Amino acid sequence: MTLKNCNLFSHFDASLEKIGNKPILILDDGTTYDYEAIQNKSAQIASLLINLKVSPGERISIQIEKSPESLFLYLACLRAGLIYHPLNPGYTENELEFFISNAEPTVIICDPKNFSIFNKLAKKNNINHVFTLGADGQGTLITASASEKKVFQTYNTPKDHVAALLYSSGTTGRPKGIMLTHHNLISNTQTLVDTWQFTEQDVLLHALPIFHVHGLFVAIGCALSSGASMYWLSKFDETKILRHLSQCSVLMGVPTYYTRLLATENITHKNCNNIRIFISGSAPLLEETFHNFATKTGHEILERYGMTETNMNTSNPIKGKRKPGTVGPPLPGIELRVMDDEGHCLENDTIGNLQVKGPNVFKGYWKMPEKTAEDFTKDGYFKTGDKAKIDRDGYVSIVGRSKDMIISGGLNVYPKEVELILDDIDGVMESAVIGVEHQDLGEGVVAIVIESASIVLEEKDIIKLCKQQLAGYKIPKKIIFAKALPRNSMAKVQKNILRENYKNLFI
User: Fold this and answer.
1) Same structural domain for residues 303 and 419?
2) How far, in Å, are 223, 448, 486 from residue 493 at the CA level?
3) Does one domain contain both 91 and 149?
């Protein structure tokens, strides 16, 4: 890295200042934002936050919808050395209470419709500042920053300074705060730009959410680091995607995006003629989708593999064989190995525990030093919790998740978190939550529920109660009532049997 300042914004700035007044953001309605606009607006928000006496290293908790202003806010936090803490807009008050109390932010920024919830949480946690920012780009954050200076001196950031705090629940149901440093993000972004051959000539069709690694660090990072433009859609919409494909050169998406595009019957060789690369991640891409998409468009989807703790670890190549069912070889500078439960390295094509080491790997878990130590080996490899194998060509296949995590529509669902809600419902003796193959979502959330004899439950009532406490993507798509759960000799629920029993539920 040649930059003296290890701030991620400085890394972006070095590329963006070279492209002049070329549009960086292009909205669906034709509105554009260039380098000067992004510089000015992010500087004003950064100035506002610093003038509130917020210090580098303090957290800014954010639950807002995607908008150009949401990007300016992210960049402002980077510039000021503040820790960006994004929250899924679907989280309920019940979920938010933990995140706010654990992250201990100095400032909260929320959608105007949720101000009363966050104001209550702020008072409870002695937080003095709550601003609003709506999907329309309006709110008290924008009003308050409008009079601030449009020039801001980017914080001189050490390599290990934390840039972002993202939470990922474990199988115990207790969310873990993942600390990603500026160096983690810069190193991975530069590797992806080089590997995927991004240049300022590229136009990225950005339809991903930005509260999560894929849309926030991978997509935005590749575009801003290379000086590429972005068509900025608030969410995935097949009609809008098809409308803009011919003006773009890259689309990043979750497998659900590709299955939905195929379902329209309107995706063709012709409207994909300008696309350089289609990239898929956040969930496994079915080989059927890979082959069907190639037939329809003439493009083989590039599948890669990453996780919140590491950003991207592997990628199928731009030039060379893309193997369906694999996530490609390790990215340059990243080491992967497959180990058995006793810590021995396994041979090619043998399934075991995947471990990763490299500059992309996170600093540690927020306020959880013992868990951090537990999840790293003595020689510095991170235990991903994924089951994988590596073939003779070095291509990695992810074959399962040892922690039973479900990926639905590209978003992580942790069974224990849903089970805790279900088990608290009157009439539910116990539950088991599994992921079942789903044509649209990749995996659909399914709950197997054991009822007590005294109370009669209905599926619609259970789902209604879940909706009050869980984000929409975590809600079970199906409730199955059973008399007992299969268990092994140690009384552990055998979810592999449940997955097998219900594997055709959505087919």
Assistant:
1) no
2) 45, 11, 6
3) yes
